[in-house]
Specification:
CATH class of the domain at 2-96: Alpha Beta
Oligomer: single chain
Distance between the termini: 70 Å
CATH superfamily of the domain at 2-96: von Willebrand factor, type A domain
Order of helices and strands: HEHEHEHH
Shape: elongated
Strand content: 5-15%
CATH topology of the domain at 2-96: Rossmann fold
Length: about 140
């Protein structure tokens, strides 16, 4: 579902006011949602939003990667093979020259507070450990 993921990234990047608009996609290239010209449609939407897609192909045997090349070419991006160290150095050099985009958080983060649970668990484990040493209450 690469096309759906790219559409979600596009929505997020369109809201960014500054910075370069680029997506770095690490994939094996196979996707079930590139059929019937959907790859060209996604590439056009990304190009209209001035978003470039750089793809790093990992572990692909060459089957089903046409949509990835269509999107990369349509957005002025590139496709790199992970097995080629020179190509990976090139993509990282390209990334280093980009201006970072700043995103404003619009939702709250969930923060777990485990301290009371850990303290209670440590007390119970300690009492259980004491019973293993034979320290227990005997009523007589």
């Amino acid at each position: 579902m690469i096309a759906r993921a790219l559409s979600g990234c596009r929505e997020r990047l369109v809201r960014a006011k500054e910075g370069d608009r680029a997506i770095i996609l690490i994939t094996d290239g196979g996707s079930g949602d590139f059929a019937n010209g959907h790859d060209r449609q996604v590439a056009q939407e990304l190009a209209d939003a001035k978003i470039r897609v750089f793809t790093i192909l990992v572990g692909n045997d060459g089957f089903g990667i046409g949509g990835i090349y269509t999107i990369a070419n349509g957005t002025s991006g590139k496709v790199f093979e992970a097995g080629d160290p020179g190509a990976l150095a090139e993509v990282f050099r390209e990334i280093d020259h980009m201006q970072k985009a700043k995103f404003r958080q619009v939702t709250s983060d969930w923060v777990d507070y485990y301290k009371p649970l850990c303290l209670g668990g440590a007390v119970i484990a300690g009492l259980w450990g004491l019973t293993l040493f034979g320290v227990r209450y005997t009523p007589w």
